[in-house]
Amino acid sequence: MNDRRTGERVFWLLGISACFAPGARAAQPIVIVPGSTAPAAESPLERVYRLKYLSTEPAVPDLPETSSAAPASDAPVPVSSRVTVDAAAIASTIGLNPQDAVEKAKSSVTGEIPIHPALTDRFFIGLGAFYPSSTTDARLNSPSGLGTTINFEDTLGLDNSDIVPTGLARWRMSDRWRLELEHFGLNRSNTATLNSDVIWGDQVFPSGSQVDARYDVAITRLSAGYSFFKTPDKEVGIALGFHVTSIEAELAGSGGGGSDTGKVLAPLPVISMYGQVALTDKWAIASRLDAFRLAYEPYEGHVFALGIDVLYQPWRHLGLGLGWRSLEMEVSASKSDWEGALRSVFQGPMAFISTSF
Fold first, then answer.
1. CA distance 220 to 181
2. In the prediction, which pLDDT does 254 show?
3. How many CB atoms are closer than 10 A to CB 41?
4. DSSP class of residue 233?
5. How far apart are alpha carbons 157 and 114 in whole angstroms?
6. C-alpha span between 6 and 345 (Å, rounded)
7. Which residue blocks in the chain are alpha helix, DSSP H?
8. Dihedral sign computed on CA atoms, order 49, 50, 56, 62
9. Is the bond into 44 cis (omega within 30 degrees of 0)?
10. How many CA atoms lie within 13 Å of 331's alpha carbon, on the beta-carbon side?
């Protein structure tokens, strides 16, 4: 498998290099299958692509070099024979060893291109479970500007991991344009005894008091992307979008004491890079990287997110997926319902059932 992939890369490198050689665009096809035609201005790269991806003729062994036999006039020239001639011509054009190019080309042309529904279907929908471990630090300032930064897991005893539902969807608006959506939410609460004084908004909770703590977060990722590299089995693109984050954090004194709640809805813009590769007709890998740092009223902060999925689709419209998500978000806000700062990190595995059509 490694030799075939190496051969394919070398072969394409030869073709791309030949396209920029003097007179490459005017190079005529050396061998034409009987009954077929080729464009007069076909470049070596275009010829390589047509022979590799567009030919429907079966590849059959070449005749021995010492044989004087020739194919019948009405028989098609084998794909491997045509590639042999083309590879040698490309190699000689750019000054490389023709024999090495021939062997690499013949080894790559016989490989089949995997077609996975995740790279070809217009709609893709997944529903499953996300198991994130979380770290949350938050501060809600008082009117005088004072506030205590609290770690909700260590100080207030909120669970640092939980299983939550998640959903993802993709719509291919065209061959290269796509729209993606992903969502999960995590709600946690606990009653804890404070070991130090805490200033939370308008409330001051002295050391030793019991407080009811609640921290609810919902994150929706929406992006529109363009695949600048797209083949039947590979895709690489760039996207613009938002991580829309809704957070509600509350501290309340147990037994009817005072309480204060901070709320924030932050649409944080991100730039994304994504890629997908079909390993076979049933297996594929997808990845995504989101990053952005911003400073605009009333927010300042950054977002960094990573997503990796392994897709297995044994049935035409139904598949399974395992993935990993990592999200780090840090925001300072100056709003009436949240004057302060927060930092949240979520990372962990996810599993989902998918359908595509």
1. 7
2. 82
3. 10
4. T
5. 49
6. 39
7. 2-19, 44-49, 79-94, 98-109, 117-120
8. negative
9. no
10. 30
Tell me the residue length of the chain. 357
Give the residue ranges of the chain where pLDDT is below 70.
Answer: 1-111
> Radius of gyration over alpha carbons of the chain, in Å?
29
Q: What is the pLDDT of residue 217?
A: 94
Kindly report, residue by residue over 115-162, the tens digit of the pLDDT.
999 999 999 999 999 999 999 999 999 888 889 999 999 999 999 999
Residues of the chain with CATH 2.40.128.90: 117-356
Specify the pLDDT at position 136.
94
Alpha-carbon gap, residue 180 to 131, rounded angstroms: 21
Environment class of residue 291 by beta-carbon count within 10 Å: exposed (0-12), middle (13-18) or buried (19+)?
Answer: middle
**Taking Cα atoms as reference points, which of 338, 309, 329, 310 lies closest to residue 218?**
329
CATH number of the domain located at residue range(s) 117-356 in this protein:
2.40.128.90
| Nearest of 134, 148, 263, 129 to residue 196 by alpha carbon | 148
pLDDT, tens digit (0-9, with 9 covering 90-100), for 49-84: 456 555 544 444 444 444 444 444 455 545 444 445
Show the tokens assigned to 110.
């016989």
Q: How many CB atoms lie within 10 A of CB 86?
A: 28
* Residue 108 in tokens: 């790559």
Cα 250 to Cα 215: distance, rounded to the nearest angstrom: 7
